[in-house]
Amino acid sequence: MTAHAGEERPSTTHPDPMPVGPGQRRRTRQVVVRWDDNQVLIGSDGPVVVQSMTNTDTAEAIATAIQTRALAKAGSELVRITVNTPAAAAEVPAIREQLDRMGCKVPLVGDFHYNGHKLLHDFPECAEALSKYRINPGNVGSSAKRDDNYRAMVEAACRHGKPVRIGVNWGSLDQSVLARLMDANSARAQPWDAQAVMREALVTSAIESAQEAERIGLPGDAIVLSAKVSNVQDVVAVYTELARRCDYPLHVGLTEAGMGSKGIVASSAALSLLLQQGIGDTIRISLTPEPGGDRSKEVVVAQEILQSLGLRSFAPMVVACPGCGRTSSTFFQELADRIQRYLREQMPVWSTQYPGVENMNVAVMGCIVNGPGESKHADIGISLPGADESPVAPVYIDGERTVTLKGDHIAEEFQAIVENYVERRYGAKA
């Protein structure tokens, strides 16, 4: 649009540079979770930790150990298991022993609820085999027994030298806290709405429970807090307030997120808003798996959220176009999927053999419009022919066109080029 005489032209410059990247990490205490020689740091001096939870019957030790190992192999740095019955508690040492025999040193977190005080007392081997406990102060017993049961669980953690996640949940909120806050709210000149009272009850319950644990004797650097709700805006509001009012590390997640794309999108929205503000020290994506689905998918989603935000790198990222009328063939989609799965499958070996490979970027593009440009910006990229284009696929390495592939074996040849690039750039000789 042309400005008329006397009109002020709109400025095309910004007085201040546009902010880029995640905010500074919130400063917290440092919690150490360990098993044998594996030590996981939770808090602002360590990376944001990824964790998951088994859905096997813990009383079935072999099945639980196998799933735990699969989650750890996928990248879960802590794995939580349900400890809900005497049979489950009795098998925890066997699960730990089986994992150790498989060379899996991932720390186990015991998830305790109504009878946790009794199980920790009756099964000291279970209490010792776990690396961390999760306690929900809202369901450790009726009002008459709550304080005694909670004290017993915290004392068990002190006795065995284990850190604790104090995890409040809106589905099992401490009713005494909620009642107290509702009474205070009714006395306000302008009472809050019910949603605001519920949020405040979650924050208050978490912080007061942590303070009580410290009075009982649990060190302040052995406490992680969480406050789980299933609505994105509630998650953001509650954790923002928790971060403002305490310096305990925070375990962040959207509880009961759901299945498939709904669960992924809701979790990504909630966690990204918090992580961008520097809030969140350990995360879990609570996806409902499809029948027979892979439990480790939630681990991959957690990793990809952190990697997309630039907070951590876990595996090389594959850039691929969505496809359009110029890409009538599905070959580029099949190749992108093949390369992405291949890169992730190699990471258990590559992470130790090729340090830094997790930062590599690969482009698999479907036509000439953006293919060459995206491939040049990636560490290694391929631009496949679109509809009516010449049946050739130029490959770019470090911004330079190096070879052109054609024929029936483009996928195999490109994968071999990726393998050679990884070895040359990230190998010991490099």
Automatic annotation (TrEMBL):
Stretches with biased composition (Basic and acidic residues): 1-11
One of the GO biological process terms: terpenoid biosynthetic process
Disordered, as annotated region: 1-28
Comment on bound cofactor: Binds 1 [4Fe-4S] cluster.
Pfam families reported in the protein's UniProt record: GcpE, GcpE_C
Keywords, alphabetical: 4Fe-4S, Iron, Iron-sulfur, Isoprene biosynthesis, Metal-binding, Oxidoreductase
Cofactor: [4Fe-4S] cluster
Enzyme class: oxidoreductase
UniProt GO MF annotations: 4 iron, 4 sulfur cluster binding; 4-hydroxy-3-methylbut-2-en-1-yl diphosphate synthase activity (ferredoxin); 4-hydroxy-3-methylbut-2-enyl-diphosphate synthase activity (flavodoxin); iron ion binding
EC numbers on record: 1.17.7.3
Residues binding [4Fe-4S] cluster: 321, 324, 367, 374
Gene3D superfamilies (UniProt xref): Dihydropteroate synthase-like, Sulfite Reductase Hemoprotein, domain 1
Pathway stated in the Swiss-Prot or TrEMBL entry: Isoprenoid biosynthesis; isopentenyl diphosphate biosynthesis via DXP pathway; isopentenyl diphosphate from 1-deoxy-D-xylulose 5-phosphate: step 5/6
Keyword match Iron-sulfur: yes
Catalytic reactions of this protein: (2E)-4-hydroxy-3-methylbut-2-enyl diphosphate + oxidized [flavodoxin] + H2O + 2 H(+) = 2-C-methyl-D-erythritol 2,4-cyclic diphosphate + reduced [flavodoxin]
Keyword Iron-sulfur appears in the UniProt entry: yes
Domain IspG C-terminal: 318-419
Residue span(s) of domain IspG TIM-barrel: 38-302
Similarity remark: Belongs to the IspG family.
Annotated function: Converts 2C-methyl-D-erythritol 2,4-cyclodiphosphate (ME-2,4cPP) into 1-hydroxy-2-methyl-2-(E)-butenyl 4-diphosphate.
Name of protein: 4-hydroxy-3-methylbut-2-en-1-yl diphosphate synthase (flavodoxin)
Source species: Lautropia mirabilis ATCC 51599
